[in-house]
Amino acid sequence: MHVLLGSSARARGIRSCHTSRKQGLPASKVKEFIEQNTEISKEHLTPEIRLMLLTPRCPFWHGRPDSWPFADPYWAIYWPGGQALSRYLLDNPHVVRNGSVLDIGSGCGASAIAACMSGASQVMANDIDPVAATAIALNCELNNVKPIPVLTKNITGSDPERWSVIVLGDMFYDEQLADGLHYWLGQCIHRYKTKVLIGDPGRPQFVSHKIQRQLHKMMEYPLPECTKQENYGLTSTSVWSYQP
């Protein structure tokens, strides 16, 4: 992953807006490829959740970008903000119990899986990369969680729907995206009284954004050593409640 994602992308948690796959495996082989080229890992803040991730022990971790058959595999990294959100939901199941939960930028699906484990009655994952949908399905199966539906389009520009809780981790990495999320999440809260939880390790783009004036820190967690090594300069990660 040092070459595939680049150190600066890993440090900031940047997700690609490019969702189409490079020329490579047909869709029918995506599941098999993920199974063969990721490692089942519990080396993170939520060892209760087993995830198929790219780790330093996987062949493609140090592979050339042109050897990877898909868009950048952000779904194969358990980002610090997502780890904080998942840990928080597992430790505070009352937040989502019997409610409806939307996980935006779901990636590997950990926060959506944590919501299911914590008793949410309805969970939907959202990620613009269709390969992430396959990864989420595999991770659900790995954790004996019923399949979670995945919406693979950008929904933040559409009319908000009614959700009890919206969670999103590591999404405030770009000013334009952050501004759009700020506005859309505010609409969700004002229209439906939705509870919004944001996971982020304190990246500069998040800390300097105007949304900070409307956030309340719920919990802070020290990052595991392996996550520190993959995210240069980051030592902790937090969950914030958005309260406009």
Strand-helix topology:
Layout: H1 7-12, H2 30-37, E1 39-41, E2 51-53, H3 80-91, E3 100-104, H4 110-117, E4 122-126, H5 130-142, E5 150-151, E6 165-169, H6 175-192, E7 195-200, H7 204-207, E8 215-222, H8 225-230, E9 236-242
Parallel strand pairs: 3-4, 3-6, 4-5, 6-7
Antiparallel strand pairs: 1-2, 7-9, 8-9
Family: Belongs to the methyltransferase superfamily. ETFBKMT family.
Catalytic activity: L-lysyl-[protein] + 3 S-adenosyl-L-methionine = N(6),N(6),N(6)-trimethyl-L-lysyl-[protein] + 3 S-adenosyl-L-homocysteine + 3 H(+)
Organism: Pleurodeles waltl (Iberian ribbed newt)
Structure description:
With 244 residues, this protein is α/β, with parallel strands linked by helices. The chain has 8 helices and 9 strands. The strands form 2 sheets. It has a 7-stranded mixed sheet with strand order 5-4-3-6-7-9-8, with helices on both faces. Strands 1-2 form a two-stranded antiparallel sheet. Helix 2 packs across helix 5 and helix 3 (80-91) runs parallel beside helix 4 (110-117). Residues 6-23 have low confidence and may be disordered.
- Major beta sheet summary: 7 strands, mixed
Give the end-to-end Cα distance, rounded to a whole number of Å: 37 Å
Overall pLDDT level: 89
Residue windows where pLDDT falls under 50 for at least 5 positions: 6-23
What amount of the residues lies in strands?
15-25%
Oligomer: single chain
Gyration radius, to the nearest Å? 17 Å
User: Count the strands?
Assistant: 9
Shape annotation:
globular
Helix content: 25-40%
Pfam families: PrmA
Catalytic activity: L-lysyl-[protein] + 3 S-adenosyl-L-methionine = N(6),N(6),N(6)-trimethyl-L-lysyl-[protein] + 3 S-adenosyl-L-homocysteine + 3 H(+)
Keywords: Methyltransferase, Transferase
GO molecular function: protein-lysine N-methyltransferase activity
